[in-house]
Amino acid sequence: MINSALLNTPSSPAPLRISSAIPALDLLLGAGWFAGDLHELLGEGIGLGELSLLLPTLAACVRGKRSVALIHPPYPPYAPAICAAGIDLARLIVIEPKSTQAACWAAEHCLREMHEGVVIVWTQETQLIPDVTLRRLRRAAQLGNSVCIALRPLRAAQQSSPASVRLRYASAAAGITVDALKLRCGHDRSQSEHAHVPLAVLAQCTQSEALLAPQMRLRLQRVGVPLLPQIPAAQFAALSAQA
Amino acid sequence: MLWLSLFLPDLPLLCAMGGVGLGGALSGKAIGVADGPENRPFLRACNRESCAAGIAVGMGVAQARSLHHDLIVLPRQDAEERQALIAAAHLLLTFTPMVAIEPDGERHCVVMELSASVNLFGGIAALARKIIALMRNAENTARFGAAFFGLAPTPLAAELFARQRAGGHAAIACLPGQPLAAALRNVPLTCVPWLTDYIATLHTLGIFHLGALLQLPREGLAQRFGAQTLRTLDRCAGHAPDVRAPFIPAAQFEAQMECILPMQEGPLLMGSVAQLLAQLAQWLQARASGARAFEIIFDHSREAKSTYALTTHAPMRDVKRWSILLTEHFQRAPLAAPVHRVRLRCAQAYALGNDNATLIPLPQQSQATWDALIDRLHARLGAQAVYTLRTAPDHRPEHAQKRNGQTQQHALTPMPKALRPTFLLPRARALIVRDAMPQYQGALALLSAPERIQSGWWDDAPIERDYFIARNAQGTLCWIYRALNEPGAWYLHGFFA
Questions:
Q1: Is B322 in a helix, a strand, or coil?
Q2: How confident is the model over B214-264, as pLDDT tens digits?
Q3: Which H/E stretch holds residue B320?
Q4: Phi-psi category of A121—alpha, beta or left, where left has phi over 0 and alpha has psi -120 to 50?
Q5: Measuring CA to CA, which residue among B77, B69, B80, B61 is closest to residue B29?
Q6: For residues A91 and A89, what is the distance between their CA atoms, to the nearest angstrom?
Q7: Angular region, B175: left φ>0, alpha ψ -120 to 50, beta rest
Q8: How far is residue B28 CA from its own chain's centroid?
């Protein structure tokens, strides 16, 4: 017998959705992340705001007394920032395995054991991980009804993947843009496949810049701190317009 | 009072054969276990094959050899017999808190008082059936051999009934309300362990059963067989109090298992370890607690050994989960050399947190599965690789978080609401400075006003820094700082990923 849940068809029962808590991203995904499925987030470079896209999901998940794992992050996650995002640290584990292979092993176990949890894994692959590993991750997510989000390098886009959702992120003037490379069948085609997510960091920065009193600017210049001259004029205009 | 006795007659033979470790090779041969003074050893026990040759317990070794030339005589293992009795007591503590091992080690008998447990287990019959089923299951039969039971109002009478059953006589039990004297009347004297020295005399007197002995005049009995014998008979018949010291499990657990042949890892070695773990679980069960940490010592030779300390997130006594953790560990770090002996040591037992059962089972993950997951990750990836985060009340960014442990509420020191990066570098990285501006994969533009952090004069890590949020052309959001005591030097400290 073929398990109907295994088949990626619209006729299978509507899967549980976990809202990303970001309106633009929810619109792109339909209603949120798919519980029991693998998602890929492809992008180049660290620090574009990719984790900020996921923190609201984690916060919602932890509020629902479910668990969250951060696996193989490129740098140690910083507790005060994660706490500030509204995540109860007691339900979050960080796993720093030594290799991509070990990371996938750990991710599989977490997905299976954390019922309806969220697992974020930075694959940090030097060689693209094989299809079978991704399939195992997807299967583990299905078994635990958990959300798996794999952060992979952009060149992985050339490889085919069993993930039902593949998103590409890139930096934008006031935030981060997300493009859908692949969406789950049954997705409403009329919806946009492009989302722009403003980043709280940038919003707060422009605000503080606007509030910065002229005296303060003078003082800073006196101690030799250059102020924002490096942002191109057009970009700055866009920033102000956003604010 | 309702005493149940457990009599394990095969223990000397099993322990002696276990010491040699050739259980399979000895099958079908006549075996005896020698005990007593070295110049005149006698047989403490013998197997069925030697009995068939006419050899009996109590016979001198020389005499037995003359009856059967190929008799294999093994030395008796007192310590192991004692260990086995303790293990049996651990098992029986599941049913009642009052378990006593016969002080005389030769008797291989454990007695337990059941009157307080009868209602809980649903009657005497149900309770006795449960105990018998436990002691006669495959695992315990392999360990303790045949088990015989007796039920009586006094511990000595219970023991006699068990021995009578072991001797091949009809089973007798004396339940509460039934007269004990009537039940004791037909016990043959050969089954009474404290009369073995006088048995020949008694038989010549024409006394073959306990009933006849009890009818003799007390003065004469005391004169002939000693006041001690009379007192024991009184205790047996319930005329004198029989006070037993309850068996209390040791505060620490230690067990070992010899390997028949030196073993590298594999199912055989895991089998030995699993047996030790089962014993540990029984000890913990007897103490109504769980273990949080224990160590397994593998002896490779006289000198060389390797130790693995297993620590779990919460106290537990689950052999299956321990086995999974050990398997994970040995997949990661295989043993260096073959193993001759495995030892297990547990220094402390912890109270086991019992979960409340829920009326409606929720899909949420229980604490137990969460602990199990963390233990498994620890075992496979190493304890350093898996951690939880917590915040700490310190303004210095590198001291504002700690690994593992509970986050406390810092009511007195409200922490700044300023933006913090999601990734913090373990060590700040010096940035190249070009035209007084820091560079990270291109020029960095400062996006925020400086946040000055000046703190830590009280310990040896004071900092004086101005932190900025900066962004380069690729859009990387960095947290950088200017060290006030190093003019012109810029450092990268984190990313707003």
A1: helix
A2: 888 999 989 988 899 999 999 999 999 998 889 999 999 998 887 777 777
A3: helix B319-332
A4: beta
A5: B69
A6: 5
A7: beta
A8: 34
Contact B444, B437 (CB under 8 A): yes
Query: Average pLDDT, stretch A167-189?
Result: 83
Distance CA A103, CA A127 (A): 14
Q: Which residue of B has its CA nearest to A61?
A: B364
Beta-bridge partner residues of A38: A148
- Between CA A17 and CA A127 the distance in angstroms is 32
Pair type for strands B423-430 and B445-446: unpaired
Distance CA A112, CA A50 (A): 25
Q: Chain B closest CA to A221's CA: distance in Å? A: 11
User: Looking at beta carbons, which residues of chain A come within 8 Å of B370?
Assistant: 67, 113-114
Among B265, B251, B244, CA closest to B3: B244
The Cα B49–Cα B453 span in angstroms is 87
In contact, B429 and B406? CB cutoff 8 Å: no
Residue pLDDT, tens place only, A44-91: 888 999 999 999 999 998 888 888 999 999 999 999 899 888 888 888
User: What is the count of residue pairs from A and B with beta carbons less than 8 Å apart?
Assistant: 190
Torsion of CA B200, B204, B210, B216, to 10 degrees: -120
Residues A82, B422: C-beta atoms closer than 8 Å: yes
What 8-state DSSP symbol labels residue A78?
A: P
Q: How would you classify the pairing of strands B148-152 and B3-7? A: antiparallel
CB pair distance less than 8 Å for B422 and A95: no
A76/B424 Cβ within 8 A: yes
Q: How far apart are CA B484 and CA B462, in angstroms?
A: 12
- At residue B471, the 3 state secondary structure works out as strand
The question of ipTM being above 0.85 is answered as no
Please judge whether A205 and B424 are an interchain contact, meaning their C-beta atoms are less than 8 angstroms apart: no
**Helix or strand (DSSP H, E) at B406:** none
For residue A194, the surrounding DSSP H or E stretch is strand A194-198
> Shortest CA distance to B489 belongs to which of B421, B426, B424, B436?
B436
Q: Which residue carries 């024991």 as its tokens?
A: B232
Which residue from A44, A45, A48, A14 is spatially nearest to A31, judged by alpha carbons? Answer: A14
Go through chain A and tell me how many residues it has. Answer: 243
Exposed/middle/buried for A55, CB within 10 Å: 0-12, 13-18, 19+? buried
pTM: 0.70
Look up residue A177 and give its two tokens. Answer: 């843009």
